[in-house]
Amino acid sequence: MPRPPRFIDATAEQLLQLRVVSSHQWLLRLIGAAAALAALTLALSGQFSANLGALMVSGLVVIGVLAQMRWPDTELGLLGPLAIVLAVMARPQLPLWLAAAVGLLLLVAHMSFAAAAMFPVHGVLNRSGWSLLLRAAGAAIGLAVLGSALVTAAMGVVLGPWAMLPAVLAALALLVAMLPRAPLDG
To answer: Which 3 state secondary structure label does DSSP give 170?
Structure first.
């Protein structure tokens, strides 16, 4: 049987190299996993085996984190943050600092997994890539902290039923702004 030409072997080797996960990808994925597990630890505050609910939440978070470690853009990754948010909401007394810390950790986990899903698996980020990524992450975290401070400041303000109308209009405007747009055919 004749041997295939050398360029086919070289091309096949290069295609196989595209499947190799780079160290930068693993770093982004590990940051996301560490942030998600830290958020779980804060949300449950050491009650990992206290009851069946805490065990179920922990299991869902671990499944979500493992899925995102393997495939950063999978929808299974939503299990972890959803379970953590439900665990935080189920707490009878929730200190404000705890909610803020869990939210910030979930934001870091989301940004890290989103960056891992956006960049090529085999890709290596250079200095300008890391700089761009960290500037965008810093801006997102800064806006989240500012928004959280505004919401915290407004918690003491009591509004009447009329405030529901601007809130619904703002939610609709946000929905319209976030919907994907089809290209216009001329």
So the answer is: helix
